[in-house]
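Appendix B, Record 12. Input sequence as logged:
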Amino acid sequence: QVHLVESGGGLVQAGGSLNLSCTVSGRPFSPYTFGWFRQTPGMSRKPVITISSNGDIRYWMDSVRGRFTISRDNAKNMVYLQMLNLQPEDTAVYYCESPRNPYSDFPFDYWGQGTQVTVSS
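Logged structural output:
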């Protein structure tokens, strides 16, 4: 079973930056799409940005386009989220997620425990 562990969250002032990491284990890494989702209290998880097995960005939430980017390191089984110019509305729990099937962009079946990102104004 795939295991995803997010890290790197924290408290940052508006305009600041954070880099999140996701460590993946339990199955081969390179054939799978990965995505970062976020959730605020009372809301469902929403996709923020996703990256395909060949490194293409498949989805980009409009409000983070140009500020957030996703990358992957197939040699290290790691997925990263670089977040620049953070705003209070980016405050959420961020989850690393992946589909059950290889070479598939949808749906996202597995996720980690999440990491809290808090942006103060």
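Residues 5 and 91 are 19 Å apart (CA to CA).
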